[in-house]
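pasting for ref
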Amino acid sequence: MEQMNKERNAGPLITAQTGWEEAFLIGTEKELLEFAENIIQAVKSAEDEEFFGERTKVSKFHEKTGQYSEVLFDWLVVTKDREQTIELSRKVQGL
């Protein structure tokens, strides 16, 4: 178990969508609070960048979940408004 912690942050786990059309974020209180803080810091440090042809702010956001998480992140993208969020979601899902 000690070896796994050295390979990757134990962090919280995110399950893929289940047959109930739900996904779960699971972790200890400490892991979940650290994950929330990582999100806040990534938002604050995001820099202007084009993402799928849209002007956004982007921050690297990899290795923030545990190694057994079914969902792994690469980037955190800050959009200017809800419409841009929806448009980018459609572009990404269309890959």
